[in-house]
Give the backbone structure.
Amino acid sequence: MTEKNYNPEQKGNKSMKKQQKAEQKKEIVDTKKIEDKKEKTEKEEQKVKEEKKPIQKKEKVKKDEAIVRGIGLPISTKTSTEICRFINKKTIDKAITDLEDVLKFKKAIPMRGEIPHRKGKGMMSGRYATKATGHFVRMLKTLKANANVNGVENPVIVEAVANKASRPYGRFGAVKRKRTHIKIKVIEKNKLKEKKK
């Protein structure tokens, strides 16, 4: 801010001298503020660098088993128990390939009860339960991922259980819908042998 300078003789006045001194002080204060800001930013950068020190990764705890649960799946409990029997004691990859063959109608799932006979080795009655099989294939793929995360090598299906879930009423309350809980557990092949011994 400069004062009105109409008269050139006024430069020697006391008021003009005071104004010039004030402007000089202002410039000094401004330079100090800029220097302070620079120092602050430098300090902040140093703090950020200190915080960005390499974080020590936690060692993954290797587990012997992996589990997957399907809760309230809209599939028949009866067919899912048969699929569980069909999968049991197999590796995950083998189980997935077998179930994909079922979806392509190349293999049938063996079933108990008065059900029509199907072609296949060691099979009497069976069905191509496509809806339930699709759900099982999805679950087995997630189980495979869980086994990889837990560090389970050569996983074998040890436990495959299907239970009834709470069955909600359908539209207009005429019919109860099908609902099933499924649990599939996997263990390392080596650990399985140790347990048997």
In short: The helical segments are 14-51, 77-87, 92-103, 130-150, 189-196. Residues 65-196 form a domain with the Ribosomal Protein L22; Chain A fold (CATH 3.90.470.10).
